Fold:
Amino acid sequence: MATVIIFGNEKGGTGKSTLAVHVAVALARQGLNVAAIDGDINQGSFTKYLANRSSFVSSTSQAALPSPTFISHEWDSMSESELARHLTNSSADVVIVDTPGALTPLSKTLHSFADLVVTPLNDSLVDLDVLADVDPDTGEIRKPSHYAERLWKARQTRAARDGGSISWIVLRNRLSALDAHNKRVMADILDKLAARIGFDVGPGFGERVIFRELFLQGLTLSDFEDRESGLAWTLSHVAARQELRDLLALLAEGLSRDLAASDFEPG
Ligand SMILES: Nc1ncnc2c1ncn2[C@@H]1O[C@H](COP(=O)(O)OP(=O)(O)OP(=O)(O)O)[C@@H](O)[C@H]1O
Ligand SMILES: [Mg+2]
Structure:
């Protein structure tokens, strides 16, 4: 049965699609059979990113660019059992699903099929608001909010359907080198929340121009690691690559149960 990894957050523009492509490609590079599904029907960034990759591969004969298999369907008009057939019963080892920055009916259903949800947050207290209502003066957590409740419901739906559980990783994206105070406050609140609402805090990603530059060619950081790809590696990629490796290592840990049979090793 395929392992389903969902990139989700009720907030837009936090890096879901960017990280979904990076993880999908990195896992494909490790020899896993990876399927890609875009649950963001309107925006379709995941679709476009992977389409750009296909065009780049065919226009430059970059044979050494392993890629996920993009699966296209009218996801939003499917019944739950049809979705289940495409997700968990897929012949892929891993299904990577991107979702929109709003909780559409499709996104809610997709979340309930997850083995693992990855939630990138912009490094701001405004973004933290989707997870918890935090007292602005004391930093005290008053109560979990929308997206945390959604995860809780998804976990209940999943448990009732097949007795399975959903792991959850929350990580900060676009970390600025400058704002040390905000970083500390965020880290502190996230740690408290992790224990309270049940997620692991993942390694963060810095604010790096490289992420915006790769989209048009559909490339990811892992593509630059492979000498056969013919792509030039520069020093500016090194820190970003390490961040990606750290995330892959955490995913491998979270998914070791599901991927034990697949020779999965963090890159
Ligand atoms: N670590 C980063 N450093 C710099 N830019 C980044 C980083 N991560 C993502 N971006 C850029 O931020 C923008 C939003 O990223 P992305 O589209 O992946 O977010 P999203 O959560 O999928 O958004 P949406 O909710 O609209 O689908 C893009 O321009 C992307 O290139
Ligand atoms: Mg997106």
In short: Residues 16-17, 40, 43, 45, 98 surround magnesium ion (ligand 2) (CB under 6 Å).
